[in-house]
TrEMBL record:
Organism domain of life: Bacteria
Organism the protein comes from: Geotoga petraea
Domain Signal transduction histidine kinase internal region stretches: 158-235
Cross-referenced SUPFAM superfamilies: ATPase domain of HSP90 chaperone/DNA topoisomerase II/histidine kinase
InterPro entries, sorted: Bact_2-comp_sensor_kinase, HATPase_C_sf, Sig_transdc_His_kin_internal
Pfam families on file: His_kinase
Xref: Gene3D superfamilies: Histidine kinase-like ATPase, C-terminal domain
Residue spans crossing the bilayer: 12-32, 38-59, 79-102, 114-133
Any one GO molecular-function label of the UniProt entry: phosphorelay sensor kinase activity
One cellular-component annotation, GO: membrane
Keyword list, A-Z: Coiled coil, Kinase, Membrane, Transferase, Transmembrane, Transmembrane helix
Coiled coil: 133-165
Protein name per Swiss-Prot or TrEMBL: Histidine kinase
Length: 341
């Protein structure tokens, strides 16, 4: 690919050199110096062409991938062209003096002044374009940092809003459970209230955190399951299986509890007979996989509903991780539902 481009540049240089020499001859009417004009023109076009080729190749190799904005690419191209012209003129003058006899390479004072002015103008253009490039790059980097800061603030506000909705939702369901027990099993109310107090104390002290450790979340889930165990008695069993190495891994707070709550409220509670909720946390393909499995009424039952808590978890995962996290709900082969994160 590189050799092909080099060959193309070489051909273009030679054609440009002959065309330039013809233009010089026609303008200056110096047909008798045609061979000198060709030599000087070829030196000039080859100098500019090869310098541009080298600079452009280095630019594409080391810098092009870091420049994504269209205006930067155009400005960079313009900067390369003027820089190549400036260096090409200097190199062609040096080579002409070096390769051509002094009597053949006689440049008038007017031409020398023209070349000097041209070089000065090119220097100013290169410096100006470099300044503009640097200024635009700094401004865009600052704007990107500000946008990133605003996105983080927006993310925090969205997470806080979602979490504030989860907490009252959980409290509402738990208070309903306590209300039922007041009439049927008043002796169990104290244990329920203590567990509820523990849960909300944890939520209160961690409400400003974007993440929980899995150990903290599991402890929260256990407290909730103990509350439901009091309400449902022998009708509900639970099991938590977690890889010990993952206990310090961080996940969004209230990420597992709403799913467990949904399994019990809409899966186990409507079921006739006993039910079980199993929580399995392990590593699959270097990612954390959290499965909440119940043997409740299942998705196809009219009693099954997808509660607000599960929807909010799905939304928060999308906000925090984008395509790097997903929540799936599956109907089990026998009965019940599996929710996987």
């Amino acid at each position: 690919m590189m050799l092909k481009k080099l060959l193309q540049i070489t051909i273009i240089n030679q054609i440009s050199g002959f065309i330039l020499s013809m233009i010089i001859v026609l303008i200056s009417s110096t047909f008798y110096r045609y061979n000198i004009n060709i030599a000087i023109s070829l030196i000039f076009t080859n100098s500019v062409g090869y310098i541009y080729f080298v600079i452009d190749s280095l630019f594409k190799r080391y810098l092009r991938e870091t420049i994504e904005i269209k205006i930067f690419k155009r400005l960079s191209k313009l900067l390369l062209i003027f820089l190549s012209l400036f260096l090409g003129i200097e190199l062609s003058l040096f080579l002409s003096r070096l390769l051509l006899p002094i009597q053949m390479f006689s440049v008038s004072e007017a031409v020398q002044n023209f070349l000097m002015i041209t070089n000065i103008i090119l220097i100013f253009i290169v410096v100006f374009l470099g300044f503009i490039y640097k200024k635009l790059k700094t401004d865009i980097e600052n704007e990107m940092k500000e946008n990133e800061r605003l996105e983080k603030l927006n993310l925090k506000s969205e997470l806080a809003a979602l979490q504030s909705k989860i907490n009252p939702h959980f409290l509402f369901n738990t208070l309903n459970t306590i209300l039922d027990l007041v009439y049927d099993h008043p002796e169990k109310v104290e244990e329920m209230i203590l567990n509820l107090s523990t849960i909300y104390r944890k939520i209160l002290y961690s409400s400003e955190n974007e993440y929980y450790t899995l150990e903290q979340e599991i402890d929260l889930v256990k407290k909730y399951l103990d509350i439901e165990k009091v309400r449902l008695g022998n009708r509900m069993e639970y099991e938590i299986i977690c890889n010990p190495e993952l206990k310090n891994a961080e996940i969004p707070p209230l990420c597992i509890e709403p799913i467990v709550e949904n399994s019990i409220i809409h899966g186990i509670s409507p079921k006739k007979g006993n039910g079980k909720v199993q929580i399995v946390i392990k590593t699959v393909d270097k990612k954390i996989k959290i499965s909440v499995i119940d043997d409740g009424v299942g998705i196809e039952s009219k009693d099954f509903k997808l509660g607000f808590g599960v929807r909010s978890v799905k939304e928060r995962l999308k906000i925090l991780y984008g395509e790097d996290a997903k929540l799936e709900i599956k109907q089990n082969e026998k009965n019940g539902v599996t929710v996987e994160i």
